From TrEMBL:
Major localization listed first in the record, in broad terms: membrane
Mechanosensitive ion channel MscS domain segment(s): 139-201
Record keywords: Cell membrane, Membrane, Transmembrane, Transmembrane helix
Gene Ontology molecular function: any one: mechanosensitive monoatomic ion channel activity
Protein name per Swiss-Prot or TrEMBL: Small conductance mechanosensitive channel
């Protein structure tokens, strides 16, 4: 009684299996295309999620990455944190685009292969078209490549004080093709990355507050240097200033001497972007303490002081739209009182 039942069951199973194989053979191409698309989508999703996870870890770890020991130092150095976030997110965006383009191109080639397309001819035609597009849009290609290198090399970042050609100001955005810089007048400049040949970055890693004080020529120079040094040391001990100072202030000595005045230079190494605020605080305290010590600041016209010795070579001329300093004489640094 059992044998007649087993034979039909076996036949049905064999028939279903054969029909399934026939189905796969008949619809092999569409099934392969669907599998390629699904695998490509899943692979892109996994890779992009991995990139996003890395970006998130770097951004949330900004405190450790910036070599800052406390929260106050992070607050005192917002430009560094902003630059890290900007650069990391830009790199993440570039990586996501590269992943999408690469996976899409490979999947497209595999799909065309399933339809029996001559891939050699397609790739040759695509190469010719790409060469034509690259020649016609070479400026765009140059902009994109230069932008990618600038981001990877960390030449500049959001919040940096930079000088790019005729434009000097604060970087507001760094894109793959365009960099946006706002100058002291509030003008937002859109600069093509391909046109950027040289970048002067005043906010990279660390900065230096430099104050040149013009003291009357008949003043007690040693007393003036002592007052300047002690005042600067007192100022940098203030809680809101201390977190932004990397080294103790130093009086470098006389930068210029004539019959009417002498220029005494004070320098303080600071976190990037903090030099201007620290300079303003120092000027207030120095003016008050020098007056109390009976030391008269020179009332003659400011004297242009060249960089020399440890200062390095003379700087390039500043442009009229300089973000912080204004238009001092070409190749010189103004006297700061």
């Amino acid at each position: 009684m059992d044998e007649p039942v087993e034979e039909p069951v076996t036949e049905v199973a064999n028939t279903m299996w054969q029909e399934f194989l026939n189905f796969l053979q008949t619809y092999q191409v569409p099934i392969s295309v669907v599998i390629i698309i699904v695998v490509a989508v899943v692979l892109r999703f996994v890779l992009i999620k991995s990139v996003q996870k890395v970006v998130t870890q770097i951004v949330t770890g900004a405190k450790k990455s910036q070599n800052v020991d406390d929260t106050q130092a992070i607050i005192g150095s917002p430009l560094l944190a902003a630059r890290l976030v900007q650069r990391t997110r830009t790199l993440g965006s570039v990586s996501n685009n590269l992943i999408t383009i690469t996976i899409s191109a490979v999947a497209l080639v595999m799909i065309l292969g399933q339809f029996g397309v001559n891939l050699t001819a397609v790739l040759a035609s695509a190469g010719i078209v790409a060469a034509g597009l690259a020649f016609g849009a070479q400026n765009i290609v140059k902009d994109v490549l230069n932008g990618i290198f600038m981001v990877f090399e960390d030449q500049l970042g959001v919040g940096d004080e930079v000088e790019i050609g005729e434009v000097s100001g604060r970087v507001e955005a760094v894109g793959i093709r365009i960099t946006q810089v706002r100058d002291v007048h509030g003008t937002l400049w859109f600069i093509r990355n391909g046109e950027i040949a040289r970048v002067g970055n005043r906010s990279h890693d660390w900065s230096r507050a430099i104050l040149d004080l013009a003291v009357a020529g008949d003043a007690d120079i040693e007393l003036a240097k002592e007052v300047i040094q002690s005042t600067a040391e007192t100022v940098v001990r203030q809680p809101r200033i201390a977190a932004r100072v990397l080294e103790q202030p130093a009086v470098w000595g006389l930068e210029y001497v004539n019959g009417d005045q002498v220029i005494i230079r004070l320098v303080v190494k600071t976190r990037s972007g903090s030099q201007w605020e620290i300079s303003r605080v120092l000027r207030e305290a120095l003016k008050l303490n020098l007056d109390q010590a009976g030391i008269t600041l020179s009332s003659t016209a400011p004297v242009a002081v060249s960089f020399s010795g440890v200062d390095g070579p003379p700087p390039t001329p500043r442009k009229p739209n300089d973000y912080r300093q204004g238009p001092p004489k070409s190749g010189r640094r103004r006297n700061t009182q």
